[in-house]
Write a structure and sequence with these properties.
Blueprint: E1 3-6, H1 19-26, H2 30-51, H3 57-72, H4 78-87, H5 97-105, E2 110-115, H6 119-128, E3 137-140, H7 151-161, E4 168-172, H8 175-183, E5 187-191, E6 208-210, H9 213-219
Parallel strand pairs: 1-2, 1-4, 2-3, 4-5, 5-6
Helix pairs in contact: 1-2, 2-3, 5-9
Enzyme class: hydrolase
Organism: Pseudomonas aestuarii
EC number: 3.8.1.2
Amino acid sequence: MPTLAFDVYGTLIDPSDVTRQLRTTLGERAEGFYQSWRDKQLEYSFRRGLMGAYVDFAQCTREALAFVCAQAQAPFDAAAQQGLLEAWNHLPAFADSAPGLVALQQRGIRLYAFSNGSQAAVGALLEQAGLAEFFDEIVSVEAVHNFKPAPLVYQHLLSRTGSAAATTWLVSSNPFDVLGASHAGLRSAWVRRSEQAQFDPWGIEPDLQVASLLQLAERLPG
């Protein structure tokens, strides 16, 4: 029976929900601002991983917001920025997350949440989104002070789950995460949540591509 490890931000939980709050101030600029913020958040985690200068993912998020606010000359003072950061603690689950997890759980598959976020932050986020009950454990990168897609992060996952790479699946909507898992020897499923989403042309393909977690439950082998 396979072991499934789910990325959280962008796979189970919808971070783009913060655009609702951004629209009240930025209007039609909200989507572009959010995407720049999200891109910079991930860039900061990649850079810190390469530098060996780990900080909590929440700090990457905060520093990315400060950068994008300055770059876009957005009218967010310190209090407004703090309000936007708080929104990351109350993000909703995608509509298919709970039904998909139920279907997988009914097959007797072990499910884990696996995130760049801290144990406490991810636990609280999944709890408020109604998903915490589905997982055997939350595996956070904070234990190894690095970020996906560093190989040691995926080895940490295998150590915590006690599973073999050949029977462990990384499920993520983020291509960099899928590539990282594949490079580390894990199986991988890319959740393509948008038709506009593109997979990196690195000559490495996910073992499975699905449009939703319900489709994953239907198509996952074994």
